[in-house]
Amino acid sequence: MVDLIVYLILVFITRIDGFIFDSKKDLILLPSVAFRDHSKISSTDWILSNHGWYYKEDPLQAELLESTLEKVIGKDLDINRIKLFTADGQENENLCIFNFNQSICTYTDDEGRIKNTFQISENEIDRLVQSDGNGAKILYQLSVVNKNIRATGEVYLCDDDGITFLSDIDDTIKITGVTSSKETLQNTFTDNYKSVTGMPDIYRYWQKKYNATFAYLTASPDQLYPFLREFFNREIYPLGSFHTRHFTCKTETISMFLNNTSKRIFILLGDIFQKDPEIYASIYMKYPNRIEKIFIRKYKNDTIGQQRLEQVFNNTPEKKWATFEIGSDLPKDIFVM
């Protein structure tokens, strides 16, 4: 397995000059989040962020990775996922939003990523806001300057009060197999993504019962977002902002939500297979009055994992955390004592 990892690294960093391809360029925009501006007491403005990636496909690298993966996990690979995984970010490119009252422009970083924060008035929010049943959001149009490349982005509004479910994705709601390198590769590059049994149902139930919003945290790279979105649409998960590893770590993301809202209550969902328990326990200690519940996915017969959780949550009240394996293990009423 080490040889494979070394080879994959070499594949990603190797470039053959002088080989000409008709390579596609495109934009990926991740659903982001907006908070009220608290920098001034009298302000009614909102602070929005937009995250994305401007890339150019690399057919040679895609072919090399496809050949390598076939030796490890077999056929039936999704070539579109491979193309995005091996694409090159386009650095220092100028992009602008044109459908606001003022043009808002930014440049991609050295990896082709778009990380921008800007301020707009509540009047403009009122003009643009819409709802699709997943909470209030606005749409924006981002274009690459002097190129016929544009995409539509979503920004979900997170007001000071309300209820938000902050959910991990991999092995919490989507079967990934993060503890096995081969299984992770199979679940990333082949077949349709599979949902943990019952999770779409309970998420939709909570959304309706509590008029709740959702935000999703994942260690997946932003290249996989289009396929995650297909998965969310197919399984009918509540939509919301997506926060991938390329833009912020999980602790920073959760803290961002807590620090930018004054009364909003949060429910945290994750799994035992990585560091979610430790992260969530630490967050609870800092914000005990804002975290209503923590749910950690684990296998029911995992006694060693249970012992780990009891140690991690030693300073967290028992009523504030619980485990589950499938969606039906989760309570329909979060606020029952």
**End-to-end gap:** 47 Å
What is the approximate shape?
globular
The string of secondary-structure elements, in order, is HEEEHHEEEEHEEEEHHEHEHEHEHE
pLDDT below 50 for ≥5 consecutive residues: which ranges? Answer: 1-21
List the helices and strands and how they pair.
Elements: H1 2-13, E1 25-30, E2 32-36, E3 46-56, H2 59-73, H3 79-85, E4 88-89, E5 94-97, E6 104-107, E7 113-120, H4 122-128, E8 130-131, E9 136-144, E10 150-157, E11 163-168, H5 181-189, H6 199-210, E12 213-217, H7 225-235, E13 240-243, H8 250-259, E14 265-271, H9 276-286, E15 291-297, H10 303-312, E16 321-324
Parallel strand pairs: 2-10, 11-12, 11-14, 12-13, 14-15, 15-16
Antiparallel strand pairs: 1-3, 2-3, 3-4, 3-7, 5-6, 5-9, 8-9, 9-10
Helix pairs in contact: 1-2, 2-3
What does the model show?
31% of the residues lie in helices and 27% in strands. By secondary structure, it is an alpha/beta fold. The protein has two domains: 2-157, no CATH class; 163-329, 3-Layer(aba) Sandwich (Rossmann fold). Strands 1, 2, 3, 4, 5, 6, 7, 8, 9 and 10 form a ten-stranded mixed beta sheet that branches. Helix 1 packs antiparallel against helix 2 (59-73) and helix 2 (59-73) crosses helix 3. The longest helix has 15 residues, at 59-73. Mean pLDDT is 90; it is low at 1-21.
Overview in brief:
The protein is an alpha/beta fold. It contains 10 helices and 16 strands.
